[in-house]
């Protein structure tokens, strides 16, 4: 019996049958589908792509210019919403649901997830991104990718990399130091690539340190070589600035591509001028063919899904993601006997998603006011404000008149559609003036006042200390209306926690002076200190911290035990629900390196887990810590190294909750030494190395003298200079040292001791 050739074997056979013109055509995509290629080989077909991260945006006609003329599908909560669930299992299930819908719609790949970090709260696309933290982002994105791809649908991880703003995103040059690049922005992508194994990665428009992302060496050096990515690398729309250089660095597909004649001519010219080799061309084409053949295998799995079931799941995601920010005097939950005044146009015209490529035509949109009235017949409504208009005092006065005879006021506030969208950044963090004026006026009445927010990202709340309750519903998708109602009335216990910091005002943000940059570049001057890493480092008060979220019950964290060695790093605690109702809590573990010399090290989220407990129930919770939190990216050796020394480790319910804390001491194998490391750092990171240095310097008395001055630890005697000297500096100061002797010394010092070095 003949064995069916593997996909890779088939790809090799197909490539051998193609001429250069045909290969060139396989590098282009036509809008939402690849070029028609079945006339090349009957085993090939078009593969179809669709947005997005909050549901399927499938155009009714693929060449329609109206991006909102789409088929109805489930509109799930925005990524900024469901990231606040901190629930990896839930996000995996979300991916599964979206994958099932993609199967029915004949979509082969979903252009999701989008995981750029929220460097600035002004980012116009922040509603589409997960978090300001790379650890939380990478964990949730990995779960999402695995969920989608479990259904045979490809996931496209985007936008690689540093697509952290919309302003001039198609040409802006991001200037970022190497340590920040690796420890923040690339780290968010690493686990989703290595573990999630997406079928596709999309490059971003911007430049990174002078090179456009679609042709940046990072594609080859990091994505391909270090992380082992074997899939398709596709450009964002019209982002292939240098196709030859891009293909040489690992790019395989340009979107939407160029006319057939143009790309064929371009590829032939690149080959003939030796700017591109035929091997590089074949590698790119082969990856596209493998992707296509793999997609064909899944066509037989097409099946229908239950729309109502998916709508109900969208509600579940929203319910677990909304964040209770304030609940003074237990004003919430509401009850069915209260006379409640609901205020705000957003209660009748909900804002449930962001604008741009993630926009979804909802299957069934719920209206918050209608859902609230299902739970309480004593609800009245007052408009209070008009979206996109100025303050109307007559509307505010109407609210006050109605409020006089009610028990409690619930205001629906938020950002209008035009404020948050792909294509532009926000100008400020303010709610519209008419909403702030309304809330401020109502807060003076002495009535209990609850504010429900609908926004995709951070907003300032100048009135927060004057209201009793605040529910951050974010953009809750098509079922957000019932989710809000269920939380307000206590049918659901809120369990969302913020995946981003809420500063008191925009000027407090570390990127304030460097966002969005000038006409040509943007300088990431804040370095590694974005979001909570900055606020905690400088002890800056925030409105609501990263990781924060309230519940209708109480939890107690106790009995912290850590296990840190080469094989495993865990933190175990006992968690008790001390309240009177069941609830879910997010257990968060943070670490901070204490033995710093010079600039402080940022606080890091090391691990997390969401736990559900019944009243008075206690569970032992073990959390595996990300080994990366005990490492730094060493720009001298251009690799990750473990950082020896003392760390504070604490467990709590936000980045500010360090009540359960311990100190751990990391003693790792020796860090790799180069001629550009100074003696002070060498000894600090490798306390056991002094005797070896003393031995190798026996033939070099002057260098030995510098070393001994460091041991004396007498600044007046050593002038503090010895510890600053590198081996290269010693070579210039000590005539007995030359390049060969330095190389020999490094060989001795690094002998078998750099096994811990990371990719």
From TrEMBL:
GO molecular function: hydrolase activity, hydrolyzing O-glycosyl compounds
Keyword Hydrolase: yes
SMART domains, per database record: Fn3_like
Domain Fibronectin type III-like: 585-655
Keyword presence, Cell membrane: no
UniProt GO BP: carbohydrate metabolic process
Origin superkingdom: Bacteria
Keywords: Hydrolase
Family indicated by similarity: Belongs to the glycosyl hydrolase 3 family.
Cited PANTHER family: BETA-GLUCOSIDASE (PTHR42715:SF10)
Name of the featured protein: Glycoside hydrolase family 3 C-terminal domain-containing protein
Record organism: Candidatus Companilactobacillus pullicola
């Amino acid at each position: 019996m003949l064995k069916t050739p593997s996909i890779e074997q088939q790809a090799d056979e197909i490539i051998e049958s193609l001429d250069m013109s045909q290969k060139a055509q396989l590098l282009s995509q036509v809008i939402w589908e690849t070029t028609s290629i079945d006339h090349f080989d009957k085993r090939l077909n078009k593969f179809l792509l669709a947005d997005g991260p909050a549901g399927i945006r499938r155009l009714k006609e693929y060449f329609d210019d109206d991006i909102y003329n789409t088929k109805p599908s489930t509109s799930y909560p925005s990524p900024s919403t469901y990231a606040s669930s901190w629930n990896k299992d839930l996000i995996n299930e979300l991916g599964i649901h979206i994958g099932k819908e993609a199967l029915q719609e004949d979509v082969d790949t979903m252009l999701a997830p989008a995981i750029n970090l929220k460097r600035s709260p002004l980012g116009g696309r922040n509603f589409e991104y997960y978090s300001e933290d790379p650890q939380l982002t990478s964990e949730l994105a990995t779960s999402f990718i695995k969920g989608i791809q479990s259904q045979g649908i490809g996931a496209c991880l985007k936008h690689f990399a540093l697509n952290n703003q919309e302003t001039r995103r198609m040409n802006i040059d991001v200037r970022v130091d190497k340590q920040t690049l690796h420890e923040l922005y690339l780290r968010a992508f690493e686990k989703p690539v290595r573990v999630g194994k997406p079928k596709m990665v999309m490059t971003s428009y911007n430049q990174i340190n002078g090179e456009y992302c679609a042709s940046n060496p990072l594609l080859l050096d990091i994505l391909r070589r270090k992380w082992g990515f074997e899939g398709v690398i596709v450009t964002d729309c019209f982002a292939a600035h240098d196709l030859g250089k891009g293909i040489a660095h690992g790019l395989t597909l340009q979107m939407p591509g160029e006319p057939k004649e143009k790309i064929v001519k371009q590829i032939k010219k690149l080959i003939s001028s030796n700017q591109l080799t035929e091997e590089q061309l074949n590698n790119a084409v082969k990856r596209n063919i493998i992707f296509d053949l793999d997609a064909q295998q899944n066509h037989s799995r097409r099946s229908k899904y239950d729309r109502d079931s998916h709508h109900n799941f969208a509600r579940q995601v929203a319910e677990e993601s909304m964040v209770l920010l304030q609940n003074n005097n237990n004003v919430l939950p509401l009850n069915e006997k209260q006379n409640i005044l609901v205020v705000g146009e957003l209660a009748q015209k909900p804002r449930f998603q962001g604008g741009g490529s993630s926009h979804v035509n909802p299957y069934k949109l719920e209206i918050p006011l209608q859902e609230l009235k299902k739970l309480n017949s004593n609800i009245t409504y007052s408009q209070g404000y008009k979206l996109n208009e100025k303050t109307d005092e007559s509307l505010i006065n109407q609210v006050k008149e109605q409020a006089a005879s009610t028990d409690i006021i619930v205001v629906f506030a938020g950002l209008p559609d035009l404020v948050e969208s792909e294509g532009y950044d926000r100008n400020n963090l303010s709610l519209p003036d008419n909403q702030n004026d309304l809330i401020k006026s109502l807060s003076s009445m002495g009535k209990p006042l609850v504010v429900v927010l609908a926004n995709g990202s951070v907003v300032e709340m100048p009135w927060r200390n004057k209201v009793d309750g605040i529910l951050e519903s974010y953009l809750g998708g098509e079922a957000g209306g019932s989710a809000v109602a269920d939380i307000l009335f206590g049918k659901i216990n809120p369990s969302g926690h913020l995946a981003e910091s809420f500063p008191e005002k925009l000027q407090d943000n570390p990127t304030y002076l460097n966002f969005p940059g000038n006409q040509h570049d943007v300088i990431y001057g804040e370095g590694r200190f974005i979001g909570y890493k900055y606020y905690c480092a400088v002890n800056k008060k925030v409105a609501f911290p990263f990781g924060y979220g309230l519940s209708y019950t109480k939890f107690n964290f106790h009995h912290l035990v850590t296990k840190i060695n080469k094989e495993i790093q865990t933190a175990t605690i006992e968690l008790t629900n001390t309240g009177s109702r069941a609830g879910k809590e997010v257990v968060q573990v943070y670490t901070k390196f204490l033995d710093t010399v010079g600039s402080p090290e940022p606080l890091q989220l090391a691990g997390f887990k969401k736990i559900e407990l019944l009243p008075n129930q206690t569970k032992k919770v073990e959390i595996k810590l990300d080994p990366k939190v005990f490492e730094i990216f060493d720009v001298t050796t251009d690799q990750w190294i473990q950082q020896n020394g003392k760390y504070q480790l604490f467990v709590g319910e936000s980045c500010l909750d360090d009540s359960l804390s311990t100190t751990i001491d990391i003693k790792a194998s020796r860090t790799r030494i180069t001629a550009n490391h100074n003696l002070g750092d060498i000894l600090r990171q490798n306390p056991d190395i002094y005797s070896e240095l003393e031995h190798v310097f026996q033939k070099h008395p002057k260098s030995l003298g510098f070393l001994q001055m460091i041991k004396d630890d007498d600044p007046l005697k050593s002038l503090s200079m010895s510890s600053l000297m590198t081996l290269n500096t010693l070579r210039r100061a000590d005539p007995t040292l030359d390049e060969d002797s330095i190389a020999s010394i490094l060989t001795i010092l690094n002998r078998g001791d750099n096994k811990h070095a990371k990719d």
